[in-house]
Design a protein that fits this description.
The chain is an alpha/beta fold. It is built from twelve helices and 14 strands. The protein folds into three domains: 70 residues, Arc Repressor Mutant, subunit A (Orthogonal Bundle), CATH 1.10.10; 128 residues, Nucleotidyltransferase, domain 5, CATH 3.30.420; 160 residues, 2-Layer Sandwich (Nucleotidyltransferase, domain 5), CATH 3.30.420.40. Strand 10 and strand 11 form a beta hairpin.
Length: 386
């Protein structure tokens, strides 16, 4: 054995491998885990014993097998342990508790309008987290999803074009000081990437892109099984590419950024101008779906610009999957399919041929809980492929 590989590290890596298999495959017997991981029976048994003792894994009902005694089913903790996901957004914040399997507890959720000052933001987040920590489950990790440029090395919000309240602050440090549980901060689109990879089922996603279009326009990328973060975690700001040189002023201070013409918020702005009053995306969708408003021109303008962003993501990163996260498509039946057709006209044919375009399957709250679970699992050390 290489002197650089210590037995303790190998044990921790085996534990992480089992956690990730339980996350991907769901409840399993020891025999299942031995077969899937390729580890020996004793290795799996020792790792499972450590996980049961720590409370990260629970035993469920026995599982019938063809030969021999029924095998006891093991699953990630749902009752004795929990993680908490924190979503910081420009309009609304959300705090939710979930089991280590990522299933959010519906009864354990706090939602409130986003405060206008950073101190009030941390106050309300801390109060909400503390309330959820009073549940019987032990809180092991907190994941924070936030918009804008996130310096992952410093765990700091460096600059948020659409929510300057967090600029220069570290919610991880400040929330930890209030609640005493380790926190991790991810840019919201990167957190959505973690949820797609972690909760997407047995399908292995190694090369995919998430395009988040709710308030701003963010891009998250998994390439060869690794999250693309850049030098300081700032990668993915496709939304601040200029597409209309004399266009609207963006929150970043520039004019005509892609996110000013290709997002839920930019579409809501067009509807606000049409109606003569402030309208958010939820109301805009309702007005169109209920037949109270005809907005074909506004819809077409927005999806034409969005198709540029989608084609750019396909051309640059050559993903196997492109997931789009936003509410715009709810405004009209077939709108997503039309946007995909417009994207096909702009994307390079060879790159497009290998890419499946889909709507995102998970929420920002699930992205935040995925970040918390990912950080918890990573605390055991690298995977065998890292």
């Amino acid at each position: 054995m290489s002197p650089l590989i210590q037995p303790q590290l190998l044990r921790r890596m085996n534990v992480r491998r089992l956690l990730e298999h339980l996350q991907k495959s769901g409840p399993s017997t020891r025999a299942d885990l031995t077969r899937r991981t390729g580890s020996s029976g004793p290795t799996v048994s020792k790792a499972i014993a450590a996980l049961l003792e720590s409370g990260l894994v629970e035993e469920g009902e026995s599982h019938a097998v063809a030969l021999g005694r029924p095998g006891t089913v093991l699953r990630l903790a749902r009752n004795a342990a929990q993680v908490i996901g924190v979503v910081i957004d420009a309009r609304q914040c959300q705090v939710v508790a979930a089991g280590l399997d990522g299933v959010n507890h519906d009864e354990a959720m706090e939602t409130f309008a986003t405060p206008r000052t950073y101190s009030l933001l941390i106050d309300q987040l801390a109060h909400a987290v503390n309330r959820l920590m009073r549940r019987s489950a032990r809180t092991l990790s907190i994941g924070i999803s936030a918009p804008g440029l996130i310096n992952r090395r410093e765990q700091k919000c460096t600059f948020s074009p659409n929510f300057h309240v967090t600029d220069g602050h570290s919610p991880t440090r400040d929330l930890f000081e209030r609640v005493g549980v380790e926190c991790v901060l991810y840019q919201e689109t990167q957190a959505l990437c973690l949820s797609e990879r972690m909760f997407g089922g047995p399908e292995s996603l190694d090369d995919f892109v998430v395009l988040e279009i709710s308030t701003g326009l963010g891009l998250g990328v998994y390439s060869s099984g690794r999250l693309l973060e850049g030098h300081s975690g700032l990668a993915g700001e496709l939304g601040h590419v200029t597409v209309v040189p004399d266009g609207r002023i963006c929150g970043c201070g520039n004019r005509g950024c892609l996110e000013t013409v290709a997002t839920d918020s930019s579409f809501a702005q067009l509807i606000s101008e049409q109606t003569g009053r402030a309208v958010d995306i939820k109301e805009a969708v309702h007005l169109i779906r209920s037949g109270q408003l005809e907005s074909e021109r506004q819809l077409r303008t927005t999806i034409e610009s969005l198709a540029i962003a989608m084609a750019a993501a396909i051309n640059i990163f050559n993903p196997a999957h492109l997931f789009v996260h936003g509410r715009l498509f709810d405004a009209q039946d077939g709108l997503f399919e039309l946007t995909c057709e417009l994207t096909r006209r702009r994307a390079l044919a060879p790159s497009l041929a290998d890419c499946h375009i889909r709507r995102s399957r998970f929420s920002k709250a699930q992205g935040a809980t995925a970040a918390a679970i990912h950080a918890l699992f990573a605390s055991f050390g690298p995977t065998f492929g890292e």
